Automatic annotation (TrEMBL):
This is 2-oxoisovalerate dehydrogenase subunit alpha. It comes from Drosophila gunungcola (fruit fly). GO terms for molecular function: branched-chain 2-oxo acid dehydrogenase activity; metal ion binding. It is found in: Mitochondrion matrix. It catalyses: N(6)-[(R)-lipoyl]-L-lysyl-[protein] + 3-methyl-2-oxobutanoate + H(+) = N(6)-[(R)-S(8)-2-methylpropanoyldihydrolipoyl]-L-lysyl-[protein] + CO2. The keyword Transit peptide applies. Belongs to the BCKDHA family.
Length: 439
């Protein structure tokens, strides 16, 4: 289909959608929304759905609905398209946004290479998605509870998670807050209200909705839950449960989808049909929805501010889709050049990169200093490399801790397993690197 035909088809869909909405708006009265023994005039008032009657059968097609628009504040050249949408952030805040994105980007590069050198077992980078992390985190309050997937390290950077905490977690040593019980990049911090990341996709989604429901029941609640997940995770059954419970229980949760185009090696056009993940919100689950340019830090910031205000005021959920592009490989277990071209990646790693866009904005404002940027990156590199050298020398937690931390009191079957392992290690201690573990 040519571009012109596509445009005409899209405009037609918009007109049809507007007519459809006018019909519904004109038909639904306040009384019609209530269950009644009297049927509304030309209006279906069923317990399962309320909609106008028609006398002609019409097969509703996906193309009958216009796609949900993408909210953008800043173009690729760093200019604000509509001055009324400029968040008017101070120079100090914008510079922190920029530095935090640079820190994350620099740390990612070094830790990725550390895995390639065999110094850590696994790593995932955040290249291309820095704006969705920093923009959303900047719009939240520290009391808001975060459930991450595994590519939201920037949220922790904004909240103050330190370089040593990131690296100690990747090495699973005695200073790791998780005590070596998680894979690398599965961060967590009680202090920063960031629930420890779990590897299985989508398990955090119904948990986040449950936490939001608990918040809703607290008198005077002034905090919300933000649950991050990828578009691939939205294909899991837990995602449906989370969406449905959030809608029906009306929980103050922001379901934040990072739609970066690829679920491991599966492109989004093979992962789902329909209008992205945002399309599931209004019609699929009856949830308010926002879709933004995830490479635009200001768009994400403005949208998250509005989303937080909405879920707290209305005590209802919101679906937030940030569209971006995963510039890096899915993880150190992936080679993305096998399923996409280097040319495609380069476009998103340059002109469409969130750091590049914010840098151009700062240049226009007279807030950017190239020497300062260079020195900052050098300083971060120095700190990361120094911390890696320190973290890899630290002991691992005592191996007995693998049995702890799940139950308040260890059940009998785990007590017996621990004793069995102790006997085994005592008999074969020369076969284990016990010197690397705390006693």
């Amino acid at each position: 289909m040519s571009f012109l035909r596509k445009s005409v088809h899209l405009m037609g869909a918009v007109v049809r959608q507007q007519k459809h909405l006018k019909v519904i708006a004109g038909t639904i009265s306040t009384t019609a929304r209530d269950y009644s023994s009297k049927p509304a005039n030309e209006f279906g008032n069923f317990p399962g759905a309320k909609a106008p009657f028609v006398s002609k059968l019409n097969l509703i097609q996906p193309e009958d609905y216009a796609p949900i628009p993408i909210y953008r504040v800043m173009d690729r050249d760093g200019y604000i398209a509509d001055e009324s949408q400029d968040p008017q952030l101070s120079r100090e805040v914008v510079e922190k946004m920029f530095r935090d994105m640079l820190l994350l980007n620099t740390m990612d590069k070094i830790l990725y290479e550390s895995q390639r050198q065999g110094r850590i077992s696994f790593y995932m980078t955040n290249f291309g998605e820095e704006a969705s992390h920093i923009g959303s985190a900047a719009a939240l309050e520290m009391r808001d509870l975060i459930y991450g997937q595994y590519r939201e390290a920037g949220v922790l950077v904004w909240r103050g998670f330190r370089i040593d905490q990131f690296i100690d977690q990747c090495y699973g040593n005695t200073d790791d807050l998780g005590r070596g019980k998680q894979m690398p990049v599965h961060y967590g911090s009680r202090e920063l209200n960031f629930v420890t990341i779990s590897s299985p996709l989508s398990t955090q989604m119904p948990q986040a909705v449950g936490a939001a429901y608990a918040m809703k029941l607290k008198p005077g609640n002034d905090a919300c839950v933000v649950c991050y997940f990828g578009e691939g995770a939205a294909s899991e059954g837990d995602a449906h449960a989370a969406f449905n419970f959030a809608a029906t229980l009306e929980c103050p949760v922001i379901l934040f989808c990072r739609n970066n185009g690829f679920a491991i090696s599966t492109p989004s056009n093979e992962q789902y049909r329909g209008d992205g993940i945002a399309g599931r919100g209004p019609m699929g689950y009856g949830i308010a929805t926002i879709r933004v340019d995830g490479t635009d830090v200001f768009a994400v910031y403005n949208a998250m501010k509005a989303a937080r205000e909405y879920v707290l005021k209305e005590n209802k959920p919101l679906v937030f889709e940030a569209l971006a592009y995963r510039v890096g490989h899915h993880s150190t277990s992936d080679d993305s050049t096998a399923y996409r071209s280097a040319e495609e990646i380069e476009v998103w790693n340059s002109v469409e990169h969130p750091i590049s866009k914010l840098k151009r904005y700062m240049v226009h404002k007279g807030w950017f200093d190239e020497t300062e940027e260079t020195e900052f990156i050098k300083d971060v590199r120095k700190k990361v490399l120094k911390q890696i050298a320190a973290s890899e020398k630290k002991l691992k937690p005592n191996w007995r801790e693998m049995f702890e931390g799940v139950y308040a009191e260890m059940p009998e079957h785990l007590v017996e397993q621990q004793k069995e392992l102790e006997r085994h290690i005592e008999a074969h201690k020369d076969s284990y690197p016990l010197k690397n573990f705390e006693k």
